Amino acid sequence: MDMQGSRTLPVSQQQAWDALNDPDVLKTCIPGCEKFELTEANTYAVTTAVKIGPVSARFNGRVLLSDIQPPESYKIGFDAQGGVAGFGKGESAVRLTPADTGCELNYTVHATVGGKVAQLGQRLIDGAAKSLAEDFFRRFEEELLRRHPPATGADTAPPPPQQTSGGGGMPAWVWGAIAAAVALGIYLAMRS
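-> structure tokens emitted (192 positions)
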């Protein structure tokens, strides 16, 4: 399965970066996410409960970050096991760029699955994947707006993007990619 997409976020690049560097934010925003924990440098353990049609499973997985180019691009590798329900694995590339109304998150995902999940109909999996992706982005945008409410008055534009040097956590677009990889990847990986 190959997928790509983009989403304009209503905050500056730096604000998105900061929110997406917070594992608690991702845990809150990724549908069914029960655990999102750092286990070693650039590696996270993830547990997500998934129900697609008649198949329900808890997927335990790993997310590995690589080729970090702050604050512009990143690659994410992921794999997840769901017991008899099956498995999902793949990779994602993400780019976060400033935009007139905030910043834009662009991503690509390549994933494969096996087991019971892979036997579900393409329409059912596509519909579930789209719904999960929309749910993630809706939750994430709500969290961003909660943290950074729009200014009242004439100037409602987000602050200009800020550049940061390397180190000090993961870029926001990385978390966006992880969300795409976990919320979409584990779920969307089922499209193969």
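Confidence is low (pLDDT under 50) at residues 154-192.
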